[in-house]
Amino acid sequence: MRWLVAIFFVLFVAACATTEQGKRPSGPLPPSTRPTYNLTGYSPAFKDGYIDGCETAKKTSYGLKDERRFSTDSQYRMGWNDGFSVCRGKR
Fold first, then answer.
1. Cα–Cα distance for residue pair 55/66, rounded to 1 Å
2. How many CB atoms are closer than 10 A to CB 59?
3. What pTM was estimated for this model as a whole?
4. Quick check: is 1 in a domain?
5. Is the separation of the CB atoms in 57 and 87 below 8 Å?
6. Number of domains observed in the structure of the chain
7. Burial of 35 from C-beta contacts in 10 A (0-12 / 13-18 / 19+)
8. Is the pLDDT of residue 55 over 80?
9. How far, in Å, are 5, 51, 56, 61, 63 from residue 77 at the CA level?
10. Would residue 13 count as lying in a domain?
11. Is 82:53 a contact under the CB 8 Å cutoff?
């Protein structure tokens, strides 16, 4: 009977444990892990910005705003703003 109580207690405590699976590593993600969108015909900077903005609006773990690029790269900034605006409305 004591073993049964001990096993139940261990399972109960284990169920309350938290993990950090949802944490996103800092910096840009490798291309193989990024979400994909059909942005044929747009510049690579615009595509990066759009994906980052859209994922930020959807509040996924891929959401990111590269502040350096946002302030210096007009294509990235335009893509980020467009992605954020479009995906914010889809929630």
1. 13
2. 11
3. 0.63
4. no
5. yes
6. 1
7. exposed
8. yes
9. 58, 11, 13, 20, 14
10. no
11. yes
The answer to whether 49 and 83 have CB atoms below 8 angstroms apart is yes
pLDDT at 76: 95
Asked whether residue 78 is assigned to any structural domain, the reply reads yes
Q: CB of 55 within 8 A of CB of 63?
A: yes
Which domain covers residue 72, as residue numbers? 44-91
Question: In three state form, how does the secondary structure of the chain look?
Answer: CHHHHHHHHHHHHHHCCCCCCCCCCCCCCCHHHCCCCCCCCCCHHHHHHHHHHHHHHCCCCCCCCCHHHHHHCHHHHHHHHHHHHHHHCCC
88 C-beta neighbours (distance < 10 Å), count: 14
Does 17 map to a domain? no
Task: Report whether 85 contacts 54 (CB < 8 A).
Answer: no
